[in-house]
Amino acid sequence: MYGITQKDQKFLTNLANKEVARGLITFLITIATVGIAIILAISTLVLTEGDAGDKRFDRGKQVLSVLIGVLGTIVGFYFGAETAGPKQPTPTEQTQTSALNITTTTLPDGVVNKAYPSTTLQTAGLTPPLKWSVTPALPNGLTLDATAVTISGTPTAPIPKSPFKFTVTDSAAPAVTSTVDLKLEIKQ
Length: 188
Prior knowledge:
Elements: H1 6-15, H2 18-46, H3 51-80, E1 101-102, E2 110-111, E3 119-120, E4 123-124, E5 131-135, E6 142-145, E7 150-153, E8 159-169, E9 177-187
Parallel strand pairs: 2-9
Antiparallel strand pairs: 1-4, 3-7, 5-8, 6-7, 8-9
């Protein structure tokens, strides 16, 4: 009988919007201030003594009370919309500092035309089997063996110290993904 309609729900949703709430708060504060001034002016200057004056004054107080109630509701919606804090990572968006991650923090530098020191990437807390990827692609001659999780090969060209993003996804349900940026240089 007195349920919230879709129109009411849309209005309340729009009311939670910061810009809408600010505008309404400003409008209602202005109306409330003007209402107080009018009621005070009427009560002190215009109203006569007796029942008629008291009834008009009571009606003014009721209108003012409703305005203040509406203002309180809008302020509640306005500040209630701000309760959401910063976005927390979902269980599948792990950071380098979490317990489920890639623990390798550095890569050895390589030398052109010399075998790269075979390097195994380490993880903690992830559920095997793991799926690995790296972006951008490793320098010419180097490969990431996704099964053994090793970087090996013989680089064929020098590169300055450059970041490579290593990403691993485990087999947990839901899957956990972890990334780490590691720098690599291939010297002449």
